[in-house]
Design a protein that fits this description.
By secondary structure, the protein is an all-alpha fold. Helix content is about 55%, strand content about 0%. The protein is built from 16 helices and no strands.
Length: about 350
């Protein structure tokens, strides 16, 4: 089937630089192209980022990131700043990224990939017109150690078109999946969705996120070895707790394992919620070492043994007490993860 232009609709037109099509059409994300076209259509009165965000139904931070793609390539320039030196377009060129959206911005939510996939003919046309996709498929085969057939090719194209992931970020995603021993396309698609939601849209962001994952994986290995947990990799919920303890609270592995011991002593099973209460209590009191925790426990025991009602009441909520005000029965009922094993009792 051949197509031709209907010149009857050319009553109103606006110019588009050839560089947009000749050099960047394959590398630009769908959002970048849409935002640029709307901006060019505005002519001398271009829409603001807020207006573009409303039209495209996307967060302003996402729209700003999409437009920065064109700033980096010399097609646009930021108001009040000189135009950057134009870079030659090349496959796998890093896409610039803005700082993460402000905390008050709603979390980006991404739907699963649609069931309808590109046809064989559409994939062949895409590869024929864009060398970058040919290189993507070739590199993907090397990274995954297997031939990329129709299913793999369609998933990779959809990661770019649907999730707005740059090609170089997709390659890093595949490398991470291979390092975890998970090269199935279902896992790769779910990983792409997660990265898109977290706005991992540059090499720098991908490297930082992967480093974070490796850190929590290493912590989980230590935790798993001490507790007898069976799952090889942490679940998303377990990873959130580990990241919160090690990064937000700045707790060492020793302190996390000590909180585990207290949790087992008081609940007889693993509850990450209970451990979280213990660690946050220590954080509030600036207790960062096992020695400091032991000193506090000793002080609590001495005050309790003194038999003073006032002191005993004040110490009732201590993390070292089996009557701690953490609603233990609720924790027993909702203990998360690892229900199928009996935790090792600390020696």
């Amino acid at each position: 089937m051949e197509f031709q232009i209907n010149y009857e609709v050319f009553t109103e037109i606006f110019p588009v630089p050839k560089a947009v099509v000749q050099e960047n059409i394959c590398l630009a994300s769908p959002l970048s192209l849409k935002a640029l076209l709307l901006l060019l259509c505005g002519g001398g009165n271009p829409p603001t980022v807020a207006e573009l965000s409303q039209t495209l139904k996307r967060d302003p931070a996402e729209v700003e990131d999409a437009l920065l793609f064109w700033v980096e390539r010399g097609v646009l320039q930021q108001a009040g700043k000189p135009a950057p030196k134009k870079k030659a377009a090349e496959p796998a060129a890093p896409v610039p990224t803005q700082p993460a959206a402000a905390p008050e911005m709603p979390k980006k939510e991404v739907a699963p990939l649609p069931l309808a996939r590109p046809t064989h003919e559409e994939i062949a046309a895409r590869v024929a017109e864009c060398e970058a996709f040919r290189e993507l498929f070739a590199e993907a085969q090397l990274k995954l150690g297997k031939t990329i057939g129709y299913e793999g090719q369609s998933i990779l194209i959809m990661l770019h078109d649907t999730y707005d992931l740059p090609l170089e970020v997709i390659l890093m995603l595949l490398e991470y999946a291979k390092s975890k021993g998970k090269t199935g396309y279902k896992f790769i698609a779910s990983l792409g969705r997660e990265w898109s939601e977290k706005e991992i849209d540059s090499l720098e962001a991908a490297e930082e996120y992967i480093a974070s994952l490796h850190t929590s994986d290493a912590l989980w290995e230590e935790f798993r070895a001490e507790t007898g947990a069976k799952n090889r990799n942490p679940t998303a919920k377990q990873r959130r707790y580990l990241d919160g303890w090690s990064k937000e609270l700045q707790m060492s592995t020793q302190m996390i394992l000590l909180a585990y011991e207290i949790c087992i002593d008081n609940t007889s099973r693993l509850s990450l919620e209970y451990m979280d209460k213990v660690l946050r209590s220590w954080h509030e009191k600036q207790i960062k070492t096992p020695q400091a925790a032991e000193a506090e426990k000793k002080q609590w025991a001495e005050k309790k043994s003194a038999g003073k009602k006032k002191t005993a009441a004040a110490q009732k909520g201590s993390v070292y007490s089996s009557d701690a005000s953490y609603d233990l029965e609720a924790y027993r009922q909702s203990a998360i993860g690892l229900r199928d094993y009996v935790p090792k009792k600390p020696e």
